[in-house]
Amino acid sequence: MKRYLRVFAASAMSLMSSAFVPSLKASESDLKTIITISQPVAVEGTILPAGEYELKLLDSDFRKEIVGIFNGDGSRLITTVLAIRAYRLQPTDKSAFSFYDSPAGEPAALHTWFYPGDDYGFEFLKPQYTVAAGSSAAQTAAKKTRVRSPQPTVAAESAAGGN
User: Fold this and answer.
1) What's the predicted TM-score (pTM) here?
2) Disulfide-capable partner of 58 in 46, 68, 104, 142 (CB 3.0 to 4.6 Å)?
3) Domain housing 93
């Protein structure tokens, strides 16, 4: 009987201790995505030069859609953005991004970000472009009424292993 008690105690201890070991699997709750951009991209007033960046959903007590943008290795926070929930009809197996059209000489501005397999994602505010001094009223009106259509293009990699 003592032998079974020792085996039972050892089994119970091993089960209890395994509950305190952190999981090695990447968490999909933060939607961590690594992107590589070849030219500058604007995200709500922050210009990201060409390079590698990490986007992820930050924990929030308010249940807001707060997206953190970090440097490529995730060691430095560059900016945080309060995004708007966006939806799509067909989820894909890769991260999807779209961009607003931008005036000549301005960097493309991030419009939406969707994580692989999700039918919801995040929408970022449309940039407000300033009108150059000395332009006519007609040019000003044309710039204000220009429709910006999203253009998907960016290489991305999700932390969960899917691309």
Assistant:
1) 0.63
2) 68
3) 25-158
